[in-house]
Amino acid sequence: MPRIVAPHKSGLHRLACLSLYKALLHESTRVGAAVDNPAVTRTLQSLIRFRFDRDRKLLSPSQVANGFEAGHGALSLLRQCARKSDDALNKLSQTLEHVALQAESTARYRGELASRWKPPPPQRRPHLENLRRIANRANHMSTPDNPRIFQHPRPISEVKSGVRKVPNLILAQGVPLLKYPGPTPVLLNRILKTKIQWGVRKWAQHLDIAARIQIGEWEDDWDSILGREQGIVETQEDAIANRQLGQQAEQVEEDHTQTSPEFKIRFVGGNRPDIGDGKNNNQSTARSSPAVPGVSWTLALRQVDRQLEQAVHARGRQYAELGDKYWQVIVKERELKEKERKERKHARRMARKQATSIVDADESAGDVSSVSSGFL
Question: Could you tell me where the Polar residues compositional bias lies (predicted)?
Answer without folding.
Answer: 279-288, 367-376
